[in-house]
Amino acid sequence: MYLEDEISYSWYDCGPVYSPSLKWTENVRGLKHLSLQGVELNMTAKQLEAPLSRLHSLHHLNLKDCALSGHIPNALRNLTSLSHLHLGWNEFTSRLPTWLGNMTGLVSIRFDRCYLTGPFPPSLSRLPHLKQFKLVDNKITGKIRQILLCEAWPQLTRFTLSHSNVTGSLPPCIGNLSTLQYLDLQANSLNGQIPASVGLLSALVYLSLSYNLLTGNVPSELGGISSLEVLYLDHNHLNGSIPNFIGYLSRLSSINLANNNLEGSISLHFFENATRLVDLELSENKLTVHIEPEWIPPMQFIYLKLSSCNIGGLIPAFLSTQFRLEGLHLGNNSLFGNIPAWLGGLPNLRAISLSHNNLQGELPSSFDISYYVQINLGHNMLTGSVPIPSVPASDLDLLDLSQNRFTGAIPAEIGSLFPNIEFLLYSQNDLKGDIPTSIGLLQHLRDLDLSGNNFEGKIPSSLTNCTALKRLNLANNKLSGEIPSKIGRLRQLEKLHLSDNMLKGNLPSDLQNCWKLQILDVANNSLSGNIPLWLGQLSDLMILVLRSNKFLGWIPHALGNLSTLHVLDISHNNLTGAIPPELGKLTGMMDGEAGGSEVLNGQSSHGRSYYYKEEIIVTNKRLNLTYGYSVLLLVTAIDLSSNQLSGDIPSEIGNLKHLHVLNLSGNSLTGEIPVSFGLLEQLESLDLSNNKLRGRIPGQMVQLSFLSFFIVSNNMLCGRIPSGRQFSTFNSTYFSGNPGLCGFPVDKRSCSCEHNSSAGMPPVSEDEEEEEEEEIPWYWYVSWMASFAVGFWGVFGVLCLKKKWRIIYIRILDGYAVGLLNILSLRK
After folding, report:
1. Helix, strand or coil for residue 589?
2. CA atoms within a 13 Å half-sphere pointing along the CA-CB vector of 465
3. Residue 16 contacts by C-beta under 8 Å, 6 or more apart in sequence?
4. Any domain includes 792
């Protein structure tokens, strides 16, 4: 396999460093090679100026990981003999200086992970002898065409500019870099197609364009690079089929085409000529991978990742011959049958994922989890007891047995069995018993999911010792008692799911110390007391669900401070008082940017993600809908229903222009429907039923084009129901229990309104009150359906490429679907 070797030269360490001012450099002015790599100098660039200015003879300088800060020292520009410069793993937080372009003797430059910012300086094109250039994990910006200057570096052999903010398409002149051996541009925002001229890079050994926005086919011209050993094109938007040339590149050792839109059928026989192949990754495409039952490959894989490749059948038998195999991913392939005993006997297998299949039966006795690093068997039909390692599984960091049919209890000694585990997922099984107190020994645990089982007893207080926890999900069990009072020790906690248990008591005040909390879901318990004021201090809170408890008192005004909140559900409690107008300041529901979705999914930049994903139940259109992580923050909702709230509805709610769901039903609200509701332009569902509202329905609400569910039944509303647009699709039951209402779709054709008119609404004249509602003709439905069909197929292709348009269009479809169902039920 191709290794990322440095240009060969000798480094000479200076030995122990005792003087933070580096005064010893006064005695070594003729020094040519200096490496202080890993020495914690803790110096700013200003403090480095004098020592560096004395070393005029330096050829090689390595200050990697020296805790340097500030800007890149200006004294470097005077080191005219310098050829190799390594300043990586420091915290300069400055721009790349333009004077680097004047250091024409530079052969190698490395600035990886330096927190550098700003545009790439064009002056670097003046370095005629540059062979190696490495900029990794900075915030460098610019167009790739202005950075990768094909004529500027005639001797360039290695070019790395990854994990930055570089944009644009690869220039066709890239083929002129005839000496290039190593090209790494992964994790940027490159777009367009891979130019065919890349096939002219005859010396290329390593090519990585992963985690970009590249489109088009994998160019067949790559087949002309016989020296190619590593090809990483994963996590892009490439389409078409896998080109035939890949199977004939005999020196290939690693191929990663995962997470694209590649399609077609392919057999693993296709790669038989690549006998050096040890790493093959084709997961998450639209491929169908065929594996003949009797096939024995000529290569020994180390990593084989074929998730979501439509393999089907039993676990492929050829894997029993893969004695070097360390990582195997076969998730989501419709595999069935038992896990074979020989799979547990593969001597080097350390990471296995067989999730989202139809595997059944018990784990074979040969499958000892003691020696694995990662095990993902979730979403199958496996049975038997929870597997227990024969010796402590000291290397295991992920164990996912969720959504199977495992029975029994968690072993009492779990704290010593998995000393380094980070992700422990037993959800949706048939486990029972108490949660062992030894679980508090899992100091590295980041995600614990025991939801959907039959665990009883109290939440062990020892769990608060797991201070690395980011996500804790104990929902849907039979847990009782109170939430641990010291839960605030979990300072890293971001997601807390305790819903559907039998918990009681107050929300512990110590929870306010979990200041990173993004999700708090304690629905369907017996929690009591007031909703605490300190909730308004959790500035990262996005989802707050207190539904179906015994909370009482007033809604705290401080909740209006939650600027990132997207879902507020405090329904089905005993809350009293008025709705605070401060809820109209929830800025997360005022603008159109969902924001924070990567954080909510546990994802970091450049595609690397944590393991866990999220789901939340939101009551929408009187249905309990489960929203998964992919759309969760596209939904904004406020549900205050089934309490004892009184007073007027605050007009400030109309400021929430991107609110999708508003449910205020089942209270004792009075006054009129605010005219400002006509400003809720993204509103899809509005339930004001079972209150004491009076006055007219504001005509401005006709402008709400996404409103597909509007129910005001059992109030004291009066006057004519607004007509047109979405109001033409509503069912008469939406308006029942309001004797003063008239017009379509209720039967009454005339009415009067004894109360004062709504603000901004002129009184209805006598002629208007007696006007008959025109029946909607049959041909209206036909034309409506035809228009819908043409519009859908006419814009489908565009919507596949435009995320923002796609979101809007999905809402429109949702509105039309609900409206059509209402119309059909009305005509019946």
Report:
1. helix
2. 11
3. none
4. yes
pLDDT in tens, 44-57: 878 888 888 888 88
Contacts of 5 (CB under 8 A, 6+ apart): none
Predicted structure pTM score: 0.83
Q: Which pLDDT score is estimated for 21?
A: 63
Element (H, E) at 279: strand 279-281
In a domain, 806, yes or no: yes
What amino acid is encoded at 258 in this protein? A
- Give 671's DSSP letter: S
User: Which tokens belong to 542?
Assistant: 């996005």
**C-alpha neighbours within 13 Å on the C-beta side of residue 100:** 23
Place of tokens 């927190």: 115
pLDDT digit string, tens, across residues 162-190: 999 999 999 998 998 989 999 999 999 99
Beta strand 623-628 with 615-620: parallel, antiparallel or unpaired?
A: antiparallel
Report the DSSP beta bridge partners of residue 208: 184, 232
Residue 243 and residue 224 in contact, taking contact as beta carbons nearer than 8 Å: no
Question: Is 818 within the bounds of a domain?
Answer: yes
Domain that holds residue 785: 781-827
Mean pLDDT (the chain, rounded): 85
CA 428, 412, 347, 449 dihedral sign is: positive
Measured CA to CA, the distance from residue 203 to residue 319 in angstroms comes to: 34
Question: How many structural domains does the chain have?
Answer: 1
Residue type, 765: S
Q: How many CB atoms lie within 10 A of CB 346?
A: 19
Contact 162, 139 (CB under 8 A): no
**412 vs 615, higher pLDDT:** 412
Least confident of 142-151, 731-740, 817-826: 817-826
Q: Which run of H or E residues covers position 434?
A: strand 430-434
The single-letter code of the amino acid at 297 is P
Backbone Cα Rg of the chain: 32
**Residue type at position 550:** K
Helix 778-801 to helix 803-827 angle, to the nearest 10 degrees? 160
Q: At residue 60, what is the residue type?
A: H
For residue 666, the one-letter residue type is G
Q: Evaluate whether residue 795 is within a structural domain.
A: yes
Cβ neighbours of residue 219 under 8 Å, at least 6 residues apart?
Answer: 193, 194, 195, 196, 198, 199, 243
